[in-house]
Design brief:
InterPro entries: CUB_dom, Non-NMDA_GluR_Accessory, Sperma_CUB_dom_sf. This protein has 209 residues and is α+β, with helices and mostly antiparallel strands. Strands 3, 5, 7, 8, 10 and 11 form a six-stranded antiparallel beta sheet that branches. Strands 1-2-4-9-6 form a five-stranded mixed beta sheet, with no helix packed on it. The longest helix has 13 residues. The structure holds calcium ion. The site of calcium ion has 6 residues, from loops.
Length: 209
């Protein structure tokens, strides 16, 4: 009965098998007297290796990371794990954007609901989304959490990192966003929405709706 599943697991890499086993044990999937729960849980366990993230190229060096290269796709969408369902707890997912020379990435968040209280730090036990022009933290961009209206974020460099992180309590739906790579000239001629302040090129800014 489970031949297909066993074949799937066999053809996976060892670390994926370990992830699946962890999930099976976690949610009691191995209990033979609860077949319905077991089936649902098994489906969940098998999709969890790609976190239900359907776009980008999965980066194998991280538990959850997806790469978007402008030389493959100049625009598209990306979302939090398991979107539009609730995102999993204690999960960190990276979204790496790689433009070509002179390119920048422009992100537009259509939906945003990440459990937490600004400034979305550990002190407030917040889940959050972080933006950075580097692998390290970039103080230029505030962390985002809570329920937000649509907003835009611009990179300063050809590389940009978006990181989603959830803690071990309380859940929400997450986010859904689109991205587009633009060369510097296109970016500079675009009207950047401001909040009445002095939002400059590359700064995270909210749209007035
Ligand atoms: Ca949480």
């Amino acid at each position: 009965m489970t031949g297909g599943i066993i074949e799937t697991v066999k053809s996976s890499r060892i670390d994926e098998i370990e992830k699946v086993e962890t999930f099976l044990l976690h949610c009691g999937c191995l209990h033979k007297h609860r077949p319905v729960l077991a089936a649902a849980c098994l489906r969940f366990a098998l999709t969890v290796s790609d976190f239900g993230i359907t776009t980008g190229r999965q980066e194998e060096k991280y538990p959850c990371a997806f790469v978007f290269n402008s030389n493959e796709t100049r625009n598209g969408t990306f979302a939090s794990p398991n979107y539009p369902g609730l995102y999993p707890r204690s999960t960190e997912c990276h979204y790496f954007f790689n433009g070509q020379l002179n390119e920048r990435v422009h992100l537009h968040f259509h939906f945003f609901d990440v459990e937490g209280v600004p400034p979305c730090e550990a002190l407030t036990a917040s889940d959050y989304v972080e933006f950075s022009n580097y692998m390290a933290r970039d103080r230029k961009y505030p962390r985002y959490c809570g329920q937000q209206k649509e907003f835009d974020v611009y990179s300063d460099r050809k590389f940009f990192r978006v990181t989603f992180k959830s803690n071990d309590r309380l859940d929400a739906t997450g986010f859904n966003a689109s991205y587009v790579f633009l060369d510097e000239e296109e970016n500079y001629t675009m009207k950047i929405p401001t909040t009445g302040g002095s939002a400059r090129h590359g700064e995270a800014s909210r749209e007035i709706s």
